[in-house]
Model the fold of this input.
Amino acid sequence: MITAKVQRKFLFTPLRYPGGKTSLFEYFDAVIKENNLKDVCYIEPYAGGAGAALSLLLLEKVDRIVINDYDKAIYAFWRSILEHTDEFVEMIESTPLSIDVWKKQRSIYSNGSDDLLELGFATFYLNRTNRSGILTGGPIGGMAQQGKWLLDARFNKHKLIERIKLISLYADRITVLNKDGLDVIRDYSDDLTSFFYIDPPYYDKGQCLYLNSYTHEDHERLANLLNGLSRTKWILSYDNVPQIRKLYEARKQQYEFSLHYQAHSSKEGSELIVFSDSLVVPD
Done:
């Protein structure tokens, strides 16, 4: 059993994700050292908040990172803070935290604006002001703003701007993609400097948590691809369910891990972590 808990000193991502994997940063660092990997290109085909990726890069544990998300809104956010940093920071500073503004940002997000910066900011605004960071959820404190916590509870402008400016300094070492996760794995699988962390949509309850959830056939396609990559270095995490264990039963290096996370309340989540055969797993 592997147990992980987020250390705030390693938290660089500006996005909030229930069950986010920033807490695995130290373990990934140990894997990289144990396998004597050099000039690593760390890749997250299902990046979301990219918590572990940013920690590894900003603490100089890897040479570069690839952040991919099939969700156009999340992609727009990452592109915006890297390519339009000053404009994004100005939008944070000047945009009020109110239900009227929340409704406007929700409309921009729901309509899928073609303006990358506008969509990226709306995505960020909702992520920081919605309960548990769920983009399709409701605002913290409710529409009447009468709860214990209100819209500004997770929107410390100064700290968020600091994070975004810091990330922007590494822009030339960050690749942002908007592709199917399987295509990203195929594109980089022959590069022996590549190290993948693959965190696909959950098998159970995926439709409740992700805009781009997977069917059983999608999970099967991913398993067929990964099981066929004998030299590629990858780590996979999933919800710990029989269907997933069966898809990866040929992989001998798999363990349960416990992840401490926040989603309305403090929880311990039991998940499955699977390692490619080409990786040496640290004690």
Notes: The chain is about 40% helix and 15% strand. The longest helix spans residues 116-129. Residues 45 and 183 are 9 Å apart (CA to CA). The first strand starts at residue 2 and ends at 4.
